[in-house]
Amino acid sequence: MAMEDMVPACEDLDKAGFWSVECWGGATFDSCIRFLNEDPWERLRTFRKLMPNTRLQMLLRGQNLLGYRHYEDGVVERFVEQAAENGIDVFRVFDALNDVRNLRTAMKAVRKAGKHAQGTICYTISPEHTIGDFAEMAERLMDLGSHSICIKDMAGLLKPAPAYQLVKAIKETCGQDVLVHVHTHATTGVTLVSLMKAIEAGADIVDTAISSLALGPGHNPTEAMIEMLEGTGYKTQVDMARVMKVKAHFDKVRERYSEFMTSFTGVEAGIFQSQIPGGMISNMESQLKQQGAGDRMKEVLEEVPRVRKDAGYPPLVTPSSQIVGTQAVLNVLMGKYKVMTSEFADLMLGYYGATLGMKNPDVIAKAAAHSKKDPITTRPADLLRPEWDRLRAEALALKGCNGSDEDVLTYAMFPQVAPKFFGTRGEGPRNLSKETKPAPAAAKPAAGAPDGKSNLTGPISYVVTYSGKAHNVTVAPGE
Fold this sequence. Notes:
- The protein is of the alpha/beta class.
- The chain has helices at 10-15, 28-36, 40-50, 73-86, 104-112, 131-143, 160-174, 191-201, 222-228, 240-256, 271-274, 278-290, 297-310, 320-334, 342-349, 361-371, 388-396, 405-413, 418-424, and strands at 20-25, 55-60, 90-93, 116-122, 148-153, 179-184, 205-206, 460-466, 469-475.
- The chain has a 7-stranded parallel beta sheet. The protein has a two-stranded antiparallel ribbon with strand order 8-9.
- Helix 6 (131-143) packs parallel to helix 7 (160-174) and helix 13 (297-310) crosses helix 14.
- The longest helix has 17 residues, at 240-256.
């Protein structure tokens, strides 16, 4: 969504009484430079100016920051420092694998900047995960200096009973005074009830979205949440009149983005099996269609949990969701692990961190052969050398880079996208009124015959773009 369509709602959002407004980080940074020709740092400064009374919140992927790889500690510290200076108050810090080691540096940097550090549990379901495991993780997050604990349910998996049990367990383990923040999507149709049960168990904050942009793979409606609390003894501090003005604004805005909206707008209980996050469904749907395989979505949904099991049951959230999802697509189109992305190989070998479950040793062996690397058990960032000077030199060599730390960090996050953005930034933001609409990057079909059998005579490398991320894959003879 272009900034021009958000600015008119900022005053009402700011005065509505929300605990915070999540408005930056996650995939928004990528979208700004990839599709909108907007400077994400300028977007943040604009939000800060227009919403002076409300905490601004961002989603930070721990050691991955906003990118798809681990960054060395110095880069993580600089990013947090700049985000804090530009206006972020609350940093929701998570790791895709729930490996607390990957949160340590970011959490420390947030506290050093004097901001709110929200340690995050990525909620998932598997034979390996229990309520006790999550409560223990919350305790470890508090030991890192968390000011609050977030239960991040990115796929709508949190059913009412576990929601109650988990919030209660965290309060009992970490103390009744700890702030518990619950984030869930509406995808599976059960989570509005889950939020209510979480509140009954002691949850202090819950995430919602304005009804104009809610439901489907999005969040539960703000208005419905407020109305549901009537007569329960619980209440919010949110001004419904302001909320209704925001709703009316985005009712009109939504129509302008109809061609970019997912067709997945209902309830999909099958997500309890595939565990694909709401934000990933529309991307997967689009990518399969671009590869002429739109009719194979069901096969991919069935393959995702098998790949996830092989990988040790990682939670499916960026970047692990994209990594597992991409591998599932390739398995369906090309045959089981006939083609492997370098990112999936790294996931199998421990270069993203540790998983709670055991990984398939046969797939580990294939990953090692693919990447020519050995498995590791150390914190991945411990293997990284300082890289700020190199990143700065590379960024400053690009036409249009202004030399600021913000630009260097933009380049560090998205080195393939930033050069074009720097070169066109002076033209101003793209938006619908200019009729320069953002379009998803096309995916190149993977190599091989339709039946998945290779017809190659030598190793060939391909770049497969999936969910906005370019993946390098190599197909070798006989594979």
